[in-house]
User: What shape does this take?
Amino acid sequence: MELYFTPMACSIATRIALHETGRGDATSFHRVTLSTKTLDDGTDYYAVNPKGQVPALRLDDGEILTEGTAILQYVADLAPDAGIAPVQGSVERYRLQEWLNFVGTELHKQVLAAIFNPFAPEEMKAYAREKVAPVKFEVLSKALEDKDFLVGGRFTVADAYAWFVLSLAGHAGIDLARWPSLTRYFERLSQRPSIARAAAEEMALMNPN
Assistant: This one.
């Protein structure tokens, strides 16, 4: 397989999932510069993914899969023994999809994407940071007050995606200290080998020296 990614973007959740399943070392990684929509060799990324966003995953048969939440579930299903997604058809599987959708639409898109959008007016960014973020992060905080992971009492791809969002909260001007359960959750996840490895790999690409 081949993963098209941008360092420390949401595609890092897929890198985490690949390491969780033991498939990271067998995967080729292609860095995408989103500002120019090109790969490191100058290839037009739109030729790979017409949406122009990361992640994209080229499967072994050449098919291209896009959308992070779909890719995360695909990677998880390649190695069911890893347990990073509940089995198909179970209620817990739908809980996984519930949280993947919440993290993707409510936290990633409504909050982070709005704040980091270079073309968004400052009023929109302030609204996302000061009005939307507290409500959405409170939902996540309450869900984690009495448990370590979002679904089924164990680490899943939903936690990988949530970790990405929380890793950028401070950079977005959102202080996680107001939600102790989120602070504990983030710190605990950051120590997980797959996450620590993925973060180190991608930070090295951002800071080559």
Q: What stands out?
A: Residues 91-192 form a domain with the Glutathione S-transferase Yfyf (Class Pi); Chain A, domain 2 fold (CATH 1.20.1050.10). The beta strands are 2-5, 28-33, 38-39, 56-58, 64-66. Residues 2 and 137 are 33 Å apart (CA to CA). The helical segments are 12-20, 68-78, 91-116, 122-143, 157-169, 180-190, 193-206.
